[in-house]
C-alpha cells in the first residue's frame, strides 16, 4: 500500500513503502503507486530482494493489455554491471528462457505472453521495478504453458 512520506502542498506526489514487510513474492516493497493512491496512475512497484532461505515466488505465463517494463538493478558499488543475482524470464508462447545476470530492462509489448519471472539465486541484494504503460485491467494467465510440476509453485 502506498504511503505519503512528505507533507506540504506537493507531499501527495511522494510515495514510499511501509516498514520492512515481505510479501513472499517481491521481497521488501520500497515504493508502490497504484490506482488506490493515485486514480489516474498506471502504477509502479519497486522492491528490494536479498539473499534469504525462503524462495521467492513467481506467477505463470500471462499477458497484459498494456506494455510494461521489468527492470532489474544491482547494488554492487564496486561493479555496477553485476546484478549479483540470477533471474530467469520466459518469453513468448514457446516459453523461451532468458537468464538475467546483469542490470537489465525488459520491454514487454502489449498482449505478449511472458513469465514466469523466477529468481534462481540472490548473492547480493538487487532492486526490481515493474512499470506498466497503461492502467491495470488485470492479467490473462496461461499456466498450461508450463510443465505440470512447475504450476504448483505459481502465485496468481
Class by helix and strand content?
A: mainly beta
CATH architecture: Sandwich
Number of strands: 12
- The termini sit apart by 18 Å
- Write the element-wise H/E pattern from the N-terminal end onward: EEEEEEEEEEEEH
Main sheet record: 5 strands, antiparallel
Q: C-alpha Rg, in Å?
A: 16 Å
- Measured by DSSP, the beta-strand proportion falls in 35-45%
Q: Residue-averaged pLDDT, rounded?
A: 81
**Quaternary structure annotation:** single chain
What's the helical proportion of residues?
under 10%
The CATH class is identified as Mainly Beta
CATH superfamily: Jelly Rolls
- Spatially, the strands of the biggest sheet line up as 3-4-11-6-9
> Unreliable runs, pLDDT <50, ≥5 residues?
none
CATH topology: Jelly Rolls
What general form does the structure show? globular
Total domain units = 1
Count of DSSP-assigned helices: 1
Amino acid at each position: 500500500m502506498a504511503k505519503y512520506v512528505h507533507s506540504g502542498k506537493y507531499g501527495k506526489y511522494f510515495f514510499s513503502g511501509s516498514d520492512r514487510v515481505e510479501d513472499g513474492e517481491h521481497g521488501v516493497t520500497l515504493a508502490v503507486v497504484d490506482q488506490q493512491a493515485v486514480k489516474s496512475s498506471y502504477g509502479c512497484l519497486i522492491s528490494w530482494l536479498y539473499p534469504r532461505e525462503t524462495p521467492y515466488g513467481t506467477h505463470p505465463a500471462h499477458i497484459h493489455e498494456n506494455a510494461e517494463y521489468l527492470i532489474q538493478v544491482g547494488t554492487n558499488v564496486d561493479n555496477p554491471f553485476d546484478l549479483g543475482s540470477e533471474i530467469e524470464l520466459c518469453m513468448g508462447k514457446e516459453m523461451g528462457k532468458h537468464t538475467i545476470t546483469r542490470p537489465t530492462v525488459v520491454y514487454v509489448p502489449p498482449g505478449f505472453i511472458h513469465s514466469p519471472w523466477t529468481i534462481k539465486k540472490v548473492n547480493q541484494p538487487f532492486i526490481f521495478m515493474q512499470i506498466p504503460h497503461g492502467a491495470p485491467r488485470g492479467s490473462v494467465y496461461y499456466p498450461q504453458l508450463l510443465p505440470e510440476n512447475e504450476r504448483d509453485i505459481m502465485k496468481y
